[in-house]
Design goal:
The complex is a heterodimer of chains A (755) and B (172).
Chain A lengths: L6 E5 L5 E7 L16 E4 L4 E5 L8 H13 L6 E5 L14 H27 L7 E3 L2 E4 L2 E4 H5 L2 E10 L4 E2 L7 E2 L5 E2 L23 H5 L15 E5 L9 E3 L12 E5 L2 E6 L2 H14 L1 E2 L11 H7 L6 E4 L1 H9 L3 E9 L11 E7 L3 E6 L4 H12 L6 E5 L17 H11 L3 E4 L2 H7 L6 E9 L5 E11 L7 H6 L23 E9 L21 H19 L3 H7 L4 H14 L19 E11 L2 E12 L4 E12 L6 H20 L28 E7 L16 H14 L10 H11 L1
Parallel strand pairs in A: 2-9, 4-5, 13-23, 21-22, 25-26, 29-30
Antiparallel strand pairs in A: 1-9, 2-3, 3-4, 6-7, 7-8, 9-12, 10-11, 13-16, 14-17, 15-16, 18-26, 19-24, 20-21, 20-23, 24-25, 27-28, 28-29
Helix pairs in contact in A: 1-2, 8-9, 12-16, 15-16
Chain B lengths: L1 E6 L2 E6 L6 H8 L18 E4 L2 E4 L12 E3 L4 H10 L11 H8 L9 H14 L5 H10 L12 H16 L1
Parallel strand pairs in B: 1-5
Antiparallel strand pairs in B: 1-2, 3-4, 3-5
Classes of the chains: A alpha+beta (755), B alpha+beta (172).
Chain lengths: 755, 172
């Protein structure tokens, strides 16, 4: 049994607690004067406080963490509270990129603590540990019972947890310029409660922050107000690559308390009055002169630009030789090319941050970043102050969907630099237009794929190549424009697929990377960044579209066709269960009566699957297409998942349905447009996302298992929608779409060209 | 210049430029954080409040336009419900508005940023149509001027569930 020793710091008067802290083999004592904030505390009022650098991103993480901790400690989940994301109050760091990344840590911390509590109770009750039982934080044995609170009352107990890893630091040698983005990992193997004994995980525990959000008691990052604070509005360059030539004067009659602050190409108007800052920034912007720049290809020329780019050596996975051999002996080879424009995270709330830089040596920054420690490291470098002197405080805000996961992109650098320049606390609120033009985006791509079929229509090999600009450039705009140091990754190919089709023997993948479009400009150009289910969302769309093309070529029902190409029981089960829930009519696509012409609607169904993070997903779309108008309407969507043990069925239901909405939005509407100078899709009328009226009826299938651990239960829900819709479009019209989004413009052009 | 209006049942007076958007007045002068800045151009609904019972977008409404009128934010929904229950504007709220309760019970918010505006839209809809169909809910949240209410997390299905739940509570 792997348990740790509790240490006592003697008795204290009145109250007491058990503090669980990080123990680093090569660092100062975790119990010394400089020790990090404790990870977990058992308090004498029977409450449990847990501190984690990871944050709530809108998926319910704060609920899942509490469930996992309560389960291992055998306490009621209501007894557990979380402090999240503040770098001075949480010890561990790490991504807020999904439950799977952080779950192992909190479970193990709680499990170590549970063992320590059992040891303590065995002493107090004078019975062997094996004779103890625990229910809702009450330990019983030998005819007596004690609460956890009673066990720690009047004592100061320390438990240190062995960890590996380092705090996040800027490091030019590391990916995206930051080391240890994953934070600390708990070492060792404390005994964990078997899934079969779970009482809390698997129940729909209410997500804790929701009542405060509904009653306006949540303090959001946009709500931060500091004494002496200035409101800032940024004056961004006229084009993505412009440099500042001159900036006009503020009209002091009109804007008596506003002033311009600048460093390099970073320009802002600050005022104690937010509305004055907003109006004055517009006036200053109108008078500012910027150098000419037109270094973008224009979004209409994106595909051609990617096709013509002199790509270097790609990343690759699989055996090119084996695939080539299989291709040579194929009865039939199918080829397809697919593409998607730039899309973006597009939260409802634009970036906002506040910073208080004191004496140019200490900084506190209020953020909604999903990577507080990484952001802290980056800001220390930008401000040229020791990382120990930077505190990042996290608050709720609009969902980020991956754009802050690497600890960069955001308004924090703007705020920190402006606070340093003014000597005052500064709050920077981006506008929507600014956010849709200047935040990072998920880069457009093209991909070629070939599939080899044998004489019976079985797939024997698949080869694919993916071409995309940089997808890991989280450098904050403010630092770039100000000329402050900031690091990024090298543009490179990223292969993100997982492979559920073990009966397709040969698979070879290549992925090419190139710099951002307009990379040589002061702003870094169109900075690419990860977006929900990054890389895999795009590459799996290509793979699944080809599987659908192959099924059609083999004249086999697309679900049956998938079943023939996998022996993985979880994949088979979720395919069958989702098909059943959808009432799937088994037949080859396209349907009898498929039409690419006419004013009458034609219907179709389609399927897409994905395997990601120990989870298997299936999406089934039912759509109508009006060929004459190009209107595509999704009428019903069925989504199924096996993500191992389901933690919270109700919240998973919510995340599956909302993930489908985001995926359908991408399938039908989303497209970043730009001319040769700047992004042009800068409001909601030009960057269109799905509305409620366009949301179909959504059915959910959940398969929970006790024998496969935990899997990713939220993220990939978006990724099955575009592939399923594209397949349904083929089923309805007989025409394969090679591009998303399926806008009326694209669809009418496609159908007219085909007929 | 002072602008006076009723905010959540209380008379308030603010001294700001008359073209200041109501949203800025609510957040910065009156310290209410329920309405939030989304687009600043009446395209998303995150800033929605009720003006004399009808939804407006506070990001584009100058404070001068609400002088002498009744503004209700999400913070004022419990009092609005209490007043409706008791027919008395001075009623002390003892419960959340059924729309808020339904939003909690149906676990609607994910990030939650847009949800104050969504609840305002729901309250107005249920005032007009006490028992709306799914089609009427979709229509109200999408086609009511000046713009659809947008949710990027994609909580539309949960919102439909919550509106129907609230309608059922309010009928009884």
């Amino acid at each position: 049994m792997n348990t740790l020793k509790l240490t006592r710091r003697g008795f204290v008067g009145g109250c007491g607690a058990l503090f669980v802290s990080v123990a680093l083999a090569d660092q100062r004592s975790a119990t010394g004067p400089n020790r990090l904030a404790s990870w977990l505390e058992i308090r004498d009022d029977n409450t449990v406080v847990v501190r984690t650098g990871r944050t709530e991103t809108g998926t319910g993480m704060s609920g899942y963490y509490i469930q996992a901790i309560a389960e291992e400690l055998s306490v009621r989940p209501e007894a557990v509270s979380l402090i999240m994301g503040d770098t001075d109050r949480t010890p561990d760091g790490g991504y807020s990129a999904g439950f799977v990344y952080g779950m192992s840590n909190v479970r193990k911390v709680a499990a170590y603590t549970y063992q320590a509590l059992l040891g303590l109770a065995a002493q107090e009750l004078v019975v062997p540990i094996d004779a103890l039982t625990v229910l809702n934080g009450v330990v019983s044995g030998g005819g007596r019972s004690l609460t956890y609170g009673q066990l720690v009352r009047g004592k100061h107990l320390d438990l240190t947890i062995p960890v590996t890893g380092q705090p996040a630091r800027t490091d030019p040698t590391k990916w995206v310029g930051i080391s240890s983005l994953e934070g600390y990992s708990v070492a060792g193997d404390p005994p964990l409660k078997p899934m079969s004994q779970f009482k809390i995980i698997g129940k729909s525990f209410p997500i804790p922050g929701i009542p405060d959000k509904v009653t306006a008691r949540t303090r959001w990052s946009c709500d931060v107000r500091l004494p002496g604070m200035l409101h800032a509005r940024m004056v961004r360059p006229q084009t993505l690559g412009a440099s500042l030539v001159s900036i006009g004067e503020i009209d002091v009659q009109q804007f008596p308390t506003a002033r311009v602050v600048k460093q390099g190409n970073l320009v802002a108007v600050v005022s104690p009055d937010e509305w004055e800052a907003s109006r004055a920034a517009l006036a200053v912007s109108a008078d500012a002169r910027w150098s000419d720049w037109s270094g973008l290809p224009g979004s209409d020329n994106l595909t051609r630009t990617l096709r013509e780019y002199p790509w270097g050596k790609p990343s690759s996975k699989g055996s090119a030789a084996e695939v080539a051999k299989a291709m040579r002996s194929a009865s039939r080879i199918l080829s397809g090319s697919y593409e998607q424009p730039y899309v973006r995270h597009a939260p409802i709330g634009p970036y906002v941050a506040a910073a208080d830089v004191r004496g140019r040596t200490r900084a506190t920054v209020w953020t909604h970043s999903a990577q507080s420690q990484g952001l802290r490291a980056r800001l220390a470098t930008i401000l040229d102050i020791p990382v120990e002197n930077v505190v990042v405080r996290w608050l709720d805000h609009s969902g980020q969907y991956g754009r802050t996961t690497l600890g960069g992109d955001g308004a924090e650098a703007d705020a920190a630099i402006l606070s340093k320049l003014t000597g005052r606390p500064v709050r920077v609120q981006w506008t929507l237009q600014e956010d849709l033009a200047w935040s990072t985006a998920s880069p457009g791509w093209v991909s070629d794929i070939q599939a080899a079929l044998d004489g019976s229509g079985h797939l024997t090999a698949i080869r694919s190549t993916y071409y995309s600009p940089h997808m890991f450039d989280p450098r904050p705009l403010g630092a770039l424009l100000a000329g402050a140091p900031c690091l990024t990754s090298k543009p490179g190919g990223f292969i993100a697929t997982e492979w559920p089709y073990d009966r397709i023997s040969n698979r070879f993948e290549e992925a090419h990377g190139m710099p951002n479009l307009g990379a040589d400009s002061p702003s870094g150009g169109l900075r690419g960044n990860i977006l929900r289910t990054p890389g895999q969302r795009q590459q799996n769309f290509v793979l699944e579209s080809m599987i659908n093309e192959a099924a059609a070529a083999a004249q086999v029902d697309p679900i049956q066709y998938r079943l023939r190409h996998t022996t993985q029981p979880r994949m088979i089960h979720v395919l069958q269960a989702t098909a059943k829930a959808a009432g799937w009519e088994s037949r080859p696509s396209p349907r009898a009566g498929a039409r690419a012409l006419g004013t009458q609607p034609v219907v179709g169904h389609g399927v897409c699957a994905i395997m990601r993070q120990n989870a298997y997903w299936v999406g089934i779309a039912e759509i109508t297409v009006v060929p004459a108008t190009g209107a595509v309407t999704v009428t019903r969507f069925t989504i199924g998942v096996d993500c191992g043990k389901i933690i919270n069925p109700r919240q998973l239901d919510r995340c599956m349905k909302s993930g489908v909405v985001m995926g359908l939005s991408e399938a039908l509407k989303e497209e970043v447009t730009f001319d040769t100078r700047k992004v042009t899709s800068t409001d909601w009328s030009r960057y269109k996302i799905l509305t409620m009226a366009e949301t179909p009826e959504i059915e959910v299938v959940q398969i929970s298992r006790d024998d496969c651990g935990f899997g990713g239960g939220s993220e990939a829900a978006n990724a099955v929608a575009p592939g399923a819709v594209a397949a349904a479009f083929f089923d309805a019209t007989g025409i394969q779409a090679h591009r998303i989004p399926l806008t009326a413009t694209y669809v009418t052009r496609l159908l007219r060209a085909a007929s | 210049m002072a602008s006076e209006f009723q905010l959540n049942g209380t008379q308030v007076s603010v001294s700001v430029a008359p073209d200041t958007p109501l949203l800025y007045v609510l957040r910065n002068e009156l310290k209410l954080t329920g309405p939030r800045l989304g687009c600043g151009m009446a395209q998303c609904g995150a800033c929605a409040v009720l003006l004399d019972g009808r939804e407006i977008r506070s990001c584009v409404t100058p404070v001068a336009a609400v002088i002498g009128k009744h503004v209700t934010t999400v913070e004022g929904l419990p009092a609005l419900w209490a007043a409706r229950q008791n027919g008395n504007h001075k009623s002390v709220p003892t419960a959340l508005h059924p729309v808020q309760q339904a939003w909690i019970d149906e676990q609607v918010p994910q990030c939650g940023y847009c949800q104050s505006g969504m609840m305002i839209a729901a309250v107005e809809l249920l005032d007009r149509i006490p028992d709306p169909t799914v089609a009427q809910i979709k229509d109200a949240f999408t086609n009511t001027p000046p713009s659809p209410h947008l949710c990027r997390c994609g909580t539309y299905v949960a919102i439909i569930d919550a509106v129907r739940r609230a309608a059922a509570i309010m009928k009884t």
